[in-house]
Amino acid sequence: MKILILNGSPRKNGTVATLLKAVAEPITNKHETEWIDVCKLDMKFCTACMACRDKGTCVLPEDDAHRVGQKIQQADALVIGTPTHWGNMCAPLKLLFDRNVPVFMGESPKGMPEPRQKGKRAVIVTACTTPWPFNFIFPESRGAIRAVKEVLHYGGYKLVGTITKPGTKKTNEISSSLMAKAERLGKKLIP
Ligand SMILES: Cc1cc2nc3c(=O)[nH]c(=O)nc-3n(C[C@H](O)[C@H](O)[C@H](O)COP(=O)(O)O)c2cc1C
């Protein structure tokens, strides 16, 4: 199986990257995994021309958004990591998804959304400085998770779980139970 890991964090050894590595750890030797640092990609902004809805692909000159879109199509499962930025997913990841709407969903003749990655599995990882329970009471990490879930939902993915590390301003230390959860979810990516 092919598993694509999309790391939205620019921080190489940050919390999101550490948790993503923990998700990947139990599957790396048995399956084909590919890690992409989304903030290093060369991508133009979506111009909202909506032409992709009919053409099935972005009509902008080819860049990394097209290339990673193909990898998303080819992957059997996704691991998506995003730091919480303004209670949302980070900008590079959002741009990648904006540029790849037709990879995730089509539209029926009546304009109803049609999932294009139905049944594929996914895990979401996030981190934020807001401590528990305020990261959840207010839409901090909850907002980031909700935003990524929206994309996965319209793609038809089966979300096997989410991993959140709140309170990173106070401590970056990741508990052994959270690391264990990451590894558990990594294993659950494989049916
Ligand atoms: C531009 C920006 C916006 C942020 N917005 C939020 C936020 O809305 N809520 C929050 O709790 N933390 C916010 N943070 C803090 C990050 O989510 C936090 O530092 C996180 O641990 C980063 O993870 P990383 O080190 O793995 O990239 C923001 C950080 C940046 C740089």
UniProtKB/TrEMBL annotation:
Keywords linked to the UniProt accession: Flavoprotein, FMN
InterPro entries per UniProt: Flavoprotein-like_sf, FMN_Rdtase-like_dom, ISF_SsuE-like
One Pfam family per UniProt: FMN_red
NADPH-dependent FMN reductase-like domain segment(s): 1-112
GO molecular function: oxidoreductase activity
PANTHER family: IRON-SULFUR FLAVOPROTEIN (PTHR43278:SF2), NAD(P)H-DEPENDENT FMN-CONTAINING OXIDOREDUCTASE YWQN-RELATED (PTHR43278)
Name listed for the protein in its UniProt record: Putative iron-sulfur flavoprotein
Organism: Desulfotignum phosphitoxidans DSM 13687
